[in-house]
Structures are given as C-alpha cells and as structure tokens.
Design brief:
homotetramer; alpha/beta; Alpha-Beta Plaits; TIM Barrel; 2 domains; eight-stranded parallel beta barrel; four-stranded antiparallel beta sheet; 14 strands; 37% helix; 18% strand; elongated
Chain lengths: 346, 346, 346, 346
C-alpha cells in the first residue's frame, strides 16, 4: 500500500499515519521528497486491506492511498495459473472450442421455444438460453412465465440435446431455478446484489455472471469473488456492454475487457452481442469480432419471428440468420486457432 | 407512440406496422413525408405500451419508436398534483422544513453510535442514519454488525428522540429491519433489484430509494413505481451521485436531477453529499448547494473520529463540522423560503 | 513518482527501471514487498515529468506509474497562495462580489441585443454575453453575425455600461475579437485546441476557459496552464456541464467541480447553467445552487423572446425571468457571505 | 420533424407551434391523443432544419422535438449508394484490401523513423504514421519535431515506398503539412475544431478524421460533413476509443461504431487500437477484432524500442510484434472475405 501525503503536511501527520499502519501490521517505509512525502507499507493482513485503504484515505494530511495488490484472490489468474475449463454436463467452456448459447430472450410458448431449440441445436449451438423470470425496468412489462417457463426449458433441452441457461433474480428461487437449469445466469442489474451472489455461491450449479452495466472490470471480478468465496468456483463471466453517452447502441460492447480478462482471471468469458448492441444488424459483425478477440463463447438472442417477440425483438436475430452466422464464426475461430462445431454433424 | 420508418421503406412495411398497432388497440395515423414516413398511434392499453415499443422497434423498416407518455403512473407529479409529505412518526419530509439525517456510515459500537446520535440530535438532526447490513464491493470488507447494529440504532433513536434510517439488502430481512427502523433504505446497487423492490412494496414502512449509480432519471422513477405498484406509496428518493469519467470525486452529484424531479414526481427528494462526492471537504459546499436547489433533506455521514472509522472515513465529517454546518444551512434555507430547525431549541 | 512493478517481476526489471530513473535525475528508493516491488523516485526535472511517466509505463515489468506532484504550476493554488481577483475594466471577478454575465446566445440584431443589454444592466448584470462567431455541430446551422456582431456587442456594452464577453474560435481572429471584447471565451469544443490556447496566451485580454464536455478537472487545469505558460495569467474557468449517460439534461452540471477547484487553483470560477442543463426551467434552481456552492459568477442566456431565438431558445430565459432571479440570488449570496449588486441602484 | 407537446397544453400553444412551422415552410399535421398532442411536420428547407429544431424546443408547451431526417448529407450512405474507395497515390482505402498504417507515435530521429519504416514496409504496411506536431495535454510535454519531422517522414516514405499520414493541429500549417504528407490526420481533440475542419475542407489532400473522445456517432459524421461541405470529399474516419468510466483501458474502443458506420456512411473506417486501449498487450487482440468487425484498415503505433519511446511507449508495440501480428490479421481477413498483403513480397 502506498500512502501519498499532501504537500506541506507536517511530521506529526506522517507519524500518525505510520503508527496506524503499524497497528494494522504493516512494515512502514516513508520516502521524503522535496514537495511531498510518500509512505510505502508492506505486509498487513490480506482480508483487512480493503477496509484499511478506506480508513487511511480520511486521515488528516493524506492525499491518496493506493492499493498495489489485487483485491481478489480466488478468481485471479495467479490462483490457477492457467485458464479454467468448466464442464457443463459434457459441454466444455473455456477450452479450445467456442461454445454457442442461443434461444429466445423470453420463453413465450412451447411452440416458440421448441422450434427455436431444435433449429439452433442443429445449427451447432450447445446451450439453450431463454428467460423464465425476467428483470424489467418497468413493473408493467411482462415478467416471464416463471416455473412454467423453466419446465419448458428443461424439456426442450432434454429433447434437443442442449444444456440450459436461464436467469435467476430471486434469492428464494435459486434452488428452484437450479433444479431446471444447467447454468444460473446473474443479470447485469444484479451484479452487485450481494445477497444473491452469496446465495448462488452456496449452490453447486455453474454460474454465468454478467457485467454490471456500469461496473469496472475490478468490481466485476470482486462480484465473482463473492461467489467463489462462498464455495462455488464454477463461474464464467459475460461481457454485455457498458453504459456510455452514445445513444446509437443500447450499450457499448467492451471487447477490450474480454482481452484484458485473459490476463487478469482464469475464468472463461462469454460475450452477449444482443444485449451489448441492442440492434439486430450489429449482432453478426460483433459476434465475429468477439471470436477474434478471444471470447470462449457467445450468447445470442434468436427468435422464430423477432417482429412478434414479446421482448427485445429489436436485438434478436431470426433462426435463419443464426444458421447463416455459424459458418462465418467457424471461419474466424479457425483463423485464431480455436475449434467451432457447426452443422457438419447433422 | 410515434413510429419513425426508415427512408425508402415500402408500403408493405408501413402496412404491417399499422396492422400490428391496430391489433394492439391503437388508432393509427401515418404521415407520409418526402424522405420518410412517420406513423402516429394514439390509444393502446396503458400497461402494454412498454412491451409494444420493444416489439415494434424490431419490425422490418422501423427506424425508431418513441413513447410519448410517461411510463410511470403512481409516482408521476400528475398522480397527486402536489408534492407528497411523508409523516415519519411526526417528522415531516417533503414539507416546508428541510430535514437532516446524520450518523455514522457503519454502526461500530454503542459508544460511537450513541455519542454521535446525542450530538447530531442536539445540533438539529431529526433522523439517525447508520449501516447495520453493509453492501461491500469486496467480500473481504466488514459487512456490518447486523441485528446487533439494528438494536443499537433503535435504542439510540429512542434515547435521543431521533427516527432511524438504515439499509436493507436482503429480501428475507425486510421484516427484521422494518421492526427496528423507521425508514428502509434501498442502496444504489439494489435500485434495480426488483425482488427487493417488490418486497419493500409489500411493507408499510417508508422507503428511501437511492439512485442507481448509472440510472437515468426515468429508470429511477420506474424503480420507485415498482414499490408504489406493490402498495407502498411512502417513498422518498435520494440523489447520491452518478458514475462519470471524472476521477476526482467518487461520483458526480447530479443536483440538476433534484431540480428536474420537482416537475416529474410528487415524491420528496433527499441528497447524500457524502456518497455523492466521496470527499470530506466537499460535503459542506455541496450540502449548501443541495438546499439551494430545492432538496427536502440531506443525509450526511458523521463520525466522532473519521480517521478511525471502519468505513468511508474519507467521506465522513466530524461532529464538530456537522454542528458548524447547521447554521450555514439554516441561512440558505431561509434564502429559499424553507424552514430549518437548528440547536436554538436546545 | 511511484513505479509499481508487476507481481513476479525480476531483479533485472527493477534494475532497468531504476537506472532509467537515475538517468532522468531521480533519487531512487525501492520497497520490496512480499507480492510486489514498488519504486519511489524523488527529484527529477519539473518539465520532464509528464513525459517520463509516459515512458516508464511501457517498461517491461511495470504495472503502473503514479505522478504524485501536480502536473500544472502557474494555475495551482500554491502558486499564488490566495485566490486571484481579475480586474475587467473595473469589474472585479474572484472577489467578494458575485458577478452576473447575461445576454443572448447569439447576437441576432441590434434591437434584440440592445433591448437585452439595457434590461440586464438595469437588473444588475455587469457583463454582456453574446455569440458573434458560433461553433455549431452542424455546418448548416447559422454560424453567427461575425464582425458585425462584435461591433454591436461593443456598442451595446458602451451604451449600457457593460463589459463584453464573446467566444473566439479562430486563431486568426483572436486579435479581431480582442479589439471588441473585454473577455475572450474559449468554448467547450476548443478546450484542447492547443493552437488556440497558445494564441490567447499571447494576448493580454482576459480569457474565460470553458470546461471541455469530457474533460477531467486535471485536464482542464492543464489547458489553463497552456494559456498561463504563454504569458496570459488573466484566466477564469467556467463549469458548463459534462457529458454523461443521462439524457434528461443536455449536460450534467458538475457543481462539485466548482467546490473542488477552490482547493486546487487560485483562478476564479464561473458557472453556466444554460449550457449546463439545456433546459429553461432548471436555470433558476441551478443558479441558486451555483452561488451556494461558491461560484464567483454566473453566465446566463437571456433573450427577449426565447421562442423565436435563432439558437438555444430552449436554454434561454426571458428578461423578466432574469429580473426575477436576481433578488433570489442576492439572498443566497448573503447567506454564504458574498455580496451581490441588484437593481437597487436603479 | 415531430413535435411532442406537453400533456395538458392548450389549443393556443398547438396553434402557435403550428403557425411557426408553417412560417418555416412545413406542412403541418397534428395528432390529438388522449394524453398528448403530437405535431407531424413535413417539408421545410434542408439547411434550416437543425436550427428550427433548436428554436421549437423552447416553445411554450413543447416537450420534445425529434428530427427524423439525418442532419448530414454528403457523408450519408445514400449520397453515394455504395462505399467510397480512396486512392492515396495508388493505395486504395475502402476496397477489398485491408490497409495497414504503422509507425512511431512521435518522430524522434532519423534512425528511429527509418528503421521502423523499413521494417513495417517489409512486413506489409502501406502507410507510415508518425507525429511531427503533437497535441499534448500538458504544455510541458515534448511537442514534436515540427517541420524537421515532416521532412523525415516524407523522405522515409519515399525511400521505403510508403504513403505518409501525420496530424495537423494548426489551421495555419495545413498547407505545410499537406506538402509533406499524403493524408492529413485530424486528432480526437480537434474533431470539433470547426476552424480546422473548414481549413482541411479547402485542401485537396485526403483527411483521416478521428472520433472525438466524447463524440456521438452523429456528431462525428457532422464533423466529417464540415470537411465535405468545404469541398474535400476524400475523407476516412478513425475509431480510436471513447471516454467511459472504465479506468483499466485508456479509452473504450467502440467496435460496434465501426459496424454501425457501414450502414450510415459511405466513408471508409480505420481503427486505432493503440490509442483505443492504451495498453500494449491489448493491441493484437483488438486488431484482430477490428478486422473481423469490418474495418478497412488499422493504424498502429510501432517503435523499435517502446521502453525508450518519448511518448506513448505503453501503447506501442515492437517491430517484431508487428511482424508477428501481420499473418494473424491475414488469416482473419481471409475469414471475412477481405484481402490482406503480407511479407510475401519479401
């Protein structure tokens, strides 16, 4: 930890800070410059650092406090040394193969879901997405089919050989959702819902943690750390766009975060170009860019008739468009040394 | 609702959109311009509008869909016509008087809390703040004293004649917190935790809803609408800063939102200059600006010894500083025609 | 300067960085922690620091470089010790009195300008604003009356006893504008137009430097440093809102920056609530908040008939509204110990 | 144009707005809804629309004004119908081939520049980049070699068969820079320096317009429109990252803008992953993503010894790294049906 003292601060203030640091178990090393004094502090107890920084920042004469070790542990790259591969009932995420997740934004009916599931499975998708419990900005939006939707997802997955991912929003429904889904999705609005993070940390079902729309990369990794610290290390991250001033796209999909995460964490990273752009015509190009930048998978909203989708039709592609996209992604995957399974098997 | 069609879209597309609008119960009125066609649609069912916009945006040939009625109802200014005044056990919020809420970021001990409570009460504060359950970016930070902290808050409030506000983070603890607190605070990270919003909507305890750090004003009002739609209309809003690119302050306190809300909603608005700036030296000037802009109250972090606060010492002021600030705020309140009760009564 | 080395970096890397620092004239002081090494460096030549940070950041094994002295000098608080007061032909800016600048966004005609000037002068304004050369997002917008507008401004100022401020956008017109105006305004889009900053640095006419809509406080002060380093120290800053995700207001007026600047710089600070909010109804409350937070003056767009203004009518108030606002601001000024001259003299 | 009136506005207000629209040459078509009235207006003079919107927004009773035609013309996709291909002395930009621009951030010496030029040319680059006049946040940074640097660039280009791109910052140096460079670069800080845009609009040298770090896509296209309206239609755009809250990267490279531009404009689009990320290790992955998303070229900072670069070493790659990147990009280019010329010739 580095404590930067204000210019003109007195000896007493340097002494007070140093003493407090020593109380906290640090070895203290002040550097007296011409204009400013800087105090280097090494040691200290791992778990108390975050709070110590907070405290010292308020001290008289302190200008800034800089923590030089990463505040997360279980999700850090160093913890594993190599990338994690999650085994979702035989589907590997984080390995050589790029995994496709596809399906409707919202489960609307058996027909809609089963038709989509059948065709995306044939096109090469491995995981079926679909919302049963939906987080909605407005209380007057359709909030999803709930348990009925979960049952349809499980049955569609079983019938077409797909694993299932769906969002869990309620701490009291984690168990219920885990009964029907293979992956629990934590949505962007809940990335810092610590109550929910702790609850899925207690689960043994894999979790996909979406980036908060305003979360810094470090905050996102700390949210993942909550889940890991709870005992569930089967975590993948999902970049889904951040909020910026640009109104043309719904969010700004931050692909540099995908590249950055590969040096910060061992967790696999998925990209959601549907939420990330909010525009149907940008999904294909951003999917290709995601594969090129190193994503381990994509999650795409696909609907048999997006113009009649209950939700998010504007960011859903048709099943045909999904089928057409697959060989394009396969070509990029090949160009970056990854594997990608397309309808060949059909 | 206005549907803007893309330049060069065909008659068929205008027809399809119009037909769908009629199915949804709208009266349709297309305007054919030289470059573009625009479809005006009036009527439609109140609660289906939000989803309809979403759907139509994805239609072939549609460039944009603009909803021209506000998507919220119970919290809209028009619903009441005049400003709401909340009665918190005799303390009125939203009336002529500007109400001060003060206390430590985190309840640390009986001594710390009681000393603070006693002195802020004498200085004119009406409501005691203090965190018992704390939302922390890191799982390794101190997470609060929990139930023990709630008991101390209630006792301190009772002893010094203060009402109590504290954060509730867990849907399963809403009842417990409501037993000890007079106002339930929903924190910035939970502004879109709809599970929690619905739960406090079931409660009859007043709620203070903090603005999400990345929430647009409309999203904030829609979050309040969740609570109101659940049956709890005793809501106040709290501006606490938004996330921007500026690193000097922890957040950017958006005082124009406070002014804007006075024409959009009947709900009272509180300002939190501690969270809003993250810097002790900015609390006094931003408190004064908040009163000048029309806030109904302030919530300020006060600590007997901020340099030893467990959390957020950097944004807490000393009790002395709080006492000194009070007459300054009283002067501003007078200048804008509001009342403000200072230690005079003591 | 603090150089934070990456975890696991070798001795050679620490040596390379240390050697380079010594070449640059620093005294080097490495601190070896358990996880990381940190190098403290004191001394170094003032003017080379900014570039040195840039260079070292790219070194192998370097994680971060932190400059602990402020990168600006002439505009820093310490340079003067106390606040600067600018004397604009007898109107003092930065002293006890809060100075009002008012006038139309754009000079449109003699009638419009003279009517406005006469009445804002009577209401207590000291400085007349008005655009002669206008920066426009679109090349098809009205670009201002140019020289003709400058002449009208000077004449209106002379006749009604007002000093004149107007924007200069072209390096080749600095002299021309300085001939007619008492203060040169640098607009938000030109805050980092270094060519123009150097040009006005050569002038002896006072300058008002508006904050770039995306400028951090430090970048803003560095832009002011360009002007000061050129020899023109008669500078005032103008907060006019920053760009954020919030669409309700045109910009987010950052009043905490005004408070922050009082500890960072000796320069006076003006607030522009017209540009800052883009909404007529927010100008009065944000003006009051600006005075409360410590602004040295306000610059407000006033138009005899905003509904027919060529530009920015939406953020202009009527002359009547300006007259009504003045006593309100006087009351706030009194409450914060500042003076404010209203129509009393009339 | 659509004018949305406020709920509860009276007939007189609708009449006033309608009358004003008719004065401006519009055909007016009001739609009276239950809650609100909306006025559709078609026609109007092309060049007056932008100002008309501005005016009407301030009218009494007006809630919002929405312009439904694009405010730019020459740079719009529709103007050409197909993508433009710029011929830079035989190097085609915007055609099938992806063009590489490479070179040091700043021209430092003949040795540094010539060594870099020779090797990037051999590796397949077609255009040499290098700063002679540098825009610097601090007045104390090295501001570039100026004319001397321009001469070196021209000579290096001539010797190694490269075209030259360099930044022009000063309106009075456009001619000088155009004498030595094949492409004039307008930097991010000058994207809305209209004085400079008009000046390069008078030139016949091609221009690369970088996106302002805070510019919306529409504003960027309007800035390009300034150049085109001045008579110079040889324009390419360069995405170089926008400013967001994320501190890990220097900017957030917005690749969705690259995809979006392909439907909005006929101009070629280049990506700058060096400025866009500010981190050496992210340049390769983001370059690959840029090619995948549809960029027409890349501009990359390459330095023989980035650790000793005067500027931006942190975001420069070594010549070796550049050579290694080229075949990777070639593979991606092939996967998206583009051509890419690599060292084959060597």
């Amino acid at each position: 930890m580095i404590i930067v003292m204000k210019g003109g601060c007195g000896e007493q203030q340097v002494h007070d800070v140093s003493q407090r640091l020593e109380e906290l178990g640090y070895v203290v090393n002040p550097i007296f410059g011409v204009e400013k004094t800087v105090i280097g502090a090494v040691g200290g107890k791992e778990h108390e650092k975050v709070d110590a920084v907070d405290q010292l920042r308020g001290y008289d004469g302190v200008e800034d406090v800089i923590l030089i070790t990463k505040p997360y542990k279980f999700v850090a790259k160093e913890y594993r040394g190599k990338k994690s591969v999650l085994d979702i009932g035989g589907v590997l995420i984080g390995g050589d193969e790029i995994v496709m997740m596809a399906g409707p934004c919202t489960v609307e009916s058996e027909d809609q879901l089963f038709l989509t599931a059948e065709r995306v499975a044939k096109a090469g998708a491995k995981i079926l997405r679909g919302g049963a419990y939906k987080p909605c900005t407005s209380p007057y939006s359709f909030q999803g089919m709930g348990l009925e939707g979960l049952k349809l997802l499980k049955e569609a997955g079983r019938r077409y050989g797909l694993k299932v991912i769906t969002e869990v929003m309620h701490v009291r429904k984690v168990e219920e959702v885990a009964e029907y889904a293979d992956i629990l999705q934590i949505g962007t609005r809940n990335m810092q819902n610590y109550d929910l993070l702790r609850e899925v940390g207690q689960s043994r079902t894999p979790v996909m943690l979406k980036r908060g729309m305003t979360a810094k990369i470090e905050e996102w990794l700390l949210a993942a750390e909550y889940i890991a610290a709870g005992g569930n290390e089967k975590i993948m991250l999902c970049e889904r766009g951040i909020r910026t001033f640009e109104p043309y796209t719904r969010n700004t999909l931050d692909l540099s975060a995908v590249a950055a995460l590969s040096s910060l964490t061992h967790l696999p990273v998925i990209v959601d170009p549907s939420q990330g752009t909010g525009r149907r015509d940008l999904i294909a190009p951003m999917s290709k860019a995601s594969v090129a930048v190193g994503a381990d998978g994509l999650i795409i909203e696909v609907h048999p008739n997006p113009d009649h989708a209950i939700k998010d039709g504007a960011q859903s592609i048709t099943i045909d468009a999904f089928e057409n996209l697959m060989p394009e992604l396969e070509a990029i995957a090949g160009a970056v040394g990854r594997t990608f399974k397309t309808p060949a098997a059909v």
